[in-house]
Amino acid sequence: MKKQRILVLSVFTTILGLSGIASAGDAAAGKAIYDGKGACGSCHGATGAGDGAAAAALNPKPASFAAGIFRLDTDGDGKTGTDADLANAIKNGGAKYGGNVAMPARADLTEDEVASLVAYIHSLKK
Ligand code: HEC
Predict the structure, then answer these.
(1) Residue 119 falls within a domain, yes or no?
(2) Domain span at 96
(3) I want to staple 33 with a disulfide (CB 3.0 to 4.6 A). Which of 25, 38, 73, 121 is the partner?
């Protein structure tokens, strides 16, 4: 009986711990990556409006994060713009999901960095 209770408790705390990690995205850290080594703004624009310097040459152009418009349903759940959709697009690039090949795959970013970028992208919505 006691053993079972301990097992249930540890499973519960593990789930809590994991969900904590999964939502660890920090928008401020995401902004630093977006503006810095991610160079996301060169295409997506400083405010996420899809109007970066390189965007003029892109077709289709990036959707506007600022307007909360998202095109790619990367996990096939019928919705776009979920955390999973954004994270997949960032990690695997646009081509994998039938999107613009210009959206680069950033396999070099850690899960934490991707989660922070996702949080920052959501925060850009006006
Ligand atoms: C060379 C230009 C370019 C760069 C650099 C770039 N992107 Fe993109 N990105 C695009 C384009 C173009 C699309 C649109 C893909 C489509 O809809 O077909 C896109 C799509 C996306 C999407 C999917 C949005 C949707 O409509 O569902 C996300 C998320 C995203 N980019 C995040 C990022 C992040 C974060 C970075 C920086 C690490 C980045 N991008 C860097 C061009 C770029």
Answers:
(1) yes
(2) 25-123
(3) 38
Ligand 1 shell residues, CB under 6 Å: 38-40, 42-44, 54, 58, 60, 62-63, 70-72, 80, 85-86, 89-90, 94, 99-100, 102-104, 106, 117, 121
Is residue 68 in a domain? yes
Mutate to test the pocket of ligand 1, among 44, 72, 121 (most ligand atoms within 8 A of CB): 44
Name the pTM for this structure: 0.86
Asked if 52 and 125 touch (Cβ cutoff 8 Å), the reply is no
Question: How confident is the model over 70-84, as pLDDT tens digits?
Answer: 999 999 999 999 999
In total, the chain counts a number of residues equal to 126
CA 54 – CA 30 distance, rounded (Å)? 21
Which pair of structure tokens corresponds to residue 105? 């795959």
Q: Answer left, alpha or beta for residue 11, where phi above 0 means left and psi between -120 and 50 means alpha.
A: alpha
